[in-house]
Amino acid sequence: MATLVGGAGAASAEPLGPVIDGPSSVEVEIDAVGELVVSYDNQSGLDLTCFVVVSTYEVAYEMFEFLSGGEPNAELPDYAQEMIDEAMGNGVYTVGAFTVPEGASGPVTAAFQHEYDFSDVWPVAATWCAGVGGYFELEMSDLDLPGSGGVAVLDSPSVLTVTGRGTETLVEYRNESGRGLYCIALVGEPTLIGDVYARIESDPANSNGPDPVFSELLATAAAAGKVGTYGGVVDPGSTVVFEGVTENVEPAGVLTDDSFDPVGVSFCSLFAGEDTYTEVEISQAGPGDDDDDEQAVVLPAPVIDGPSALSMHPSTLPGEYFGYSYDNRSGRDLICTVFLGSAEYIEAQLTRVNKDDLTVEEALWLPSSAEQGEAGWFVSRAGTDGPVSTLAVGGPATTETEPHAVAFCVDVELEGDTLVGAIGDHFEIETAHYVLDDDGDGPGDDSPGDDDDADPQPASIIERIIDAIDVFGSLK
């Protein structure tokens, strides 16, 4: 328990009730060097001696409510003290005192008692000011945060978390923006949601929404139970579990498909006239167990389009459109995830892995379906150069006639034809583009061979399949 403040101003035998949000006002801001600047407009008609708390919105509001009880010498309840201790530990809490003459308005000199750093949090001030005759007044500064100027904020400290699958999916939002926000989240099939975020990331100032074709794709996925819509109001500093929202949103869906680990993208706004604030967050979901206590392996910076090479060729297997070859010059055995589709589809995959502290699980993540292309994975032994057999994980083959591809490859440990596990000491990214010849009936320079190349003999195809089963079949 702690005493907040005492001995400020003269007290009468029968203290007056506090004047709350009266004609006076307080403001706080951060100057160019990170120092707090408190300003007070004293309209009380008295000289005042003031106590000021500067912290986050929730702590300042709690102090304002506590002081409104009219007993500044009272002891703080335990929960309020815990809030202060946490804020102080984070460098976003300090107290001070100042005097302000009758009718004065402007910055005051407040002797703050704690070191602070409000570089990531907008400060809010609560003041308790006493005058002669038992008069005192309480003021709280506005949370007058700037908007985002019509541009989506992609690097906010807020966090979107998605766990579970299907109808058991749990969507949570931790609001660290310093603002009260209203949020809508699309949660569902990872590749599709990743594409939503990639489109926003490529043009954060575009407020026109997705194009009609992509909107139809989202609506179709929502109708099939692959995308759900969630939302709610989140106060600053709080964490809220979003509820399903199926009215006044488009697309409106209920996530029922439990065949994949869903990913979410959230759109949270504070409507402030012409300068609305909007932040967009994407959750991260991988194939690992969230309850696993083992620390994820963080990959080194990737080798991009290095000595190894990925190429594409028309597949010789029934029902397949394209196959892959990999020239492994890394000096390591590799496991690779590969994506095939439009340039935009591949760009979305590259955007997904363009982050600090990328883990093995995130690099090797594959969707359960791929509406805009296909996805699969393969093993490539050190020094080998030739066709590889991919194990597809769902999704239609691409309809692109000149598709793009990307492979994310991580070094692995093999025992014979058994994959022991990823090592994570090497990470390489290879891209390819299948280009038709001028006559339109064969591959161009970006892929090996042409229509004059002899088709592989059936025996060699069967051998490749058997080899692939020996390696992939041991993966559980």
How would you sum up this structure, described in words?
Helix content is about 15%, strand content about 30%. The protein has 7 helices and 25 strands. The chain has helices at about 55-65, 80-90, 190-200, 210-225, 345-355, 360-365, 460-470; strands at about 20, 25-30, 35-40, 50-55, 95-100, 105, 125-130, 135-140, 160-165, 170-175, 180-190, 225-235, 240, 245, 265-270, 275-280, 305, 310-315, 320-325, 335-340, 375-380, 385-390, 390, 405-415, 420-435. Helix 3 crosses helix 5. The protein is elongated and about 90 Å long.
Number of domains: 3
Strand count: 25
Helix content: 10-25%
> How does the overall form come out from the CA principal axes?
elongated
Instruction: From the alpha carbons, calculate the radius of gyration and give it in angstroms.
Output: 30 Å
Low-confidence segments, given as residue ranges, are: 1-15, 285-294, 444-476
Biggest sheet features: 6 strands, mixed
Strand order of the largest sheet: 17-25-24-20-21-23
In percent terms, what proportion of residues is strand? Answer: 25-35%
Mean pLDDT: 77
SSE class: alpha+beta
Terminus-to-terminus distance: 55 Å
In terms of quaternary structure, the protein is single chain
Query: Number of helix segments?
Result: 7
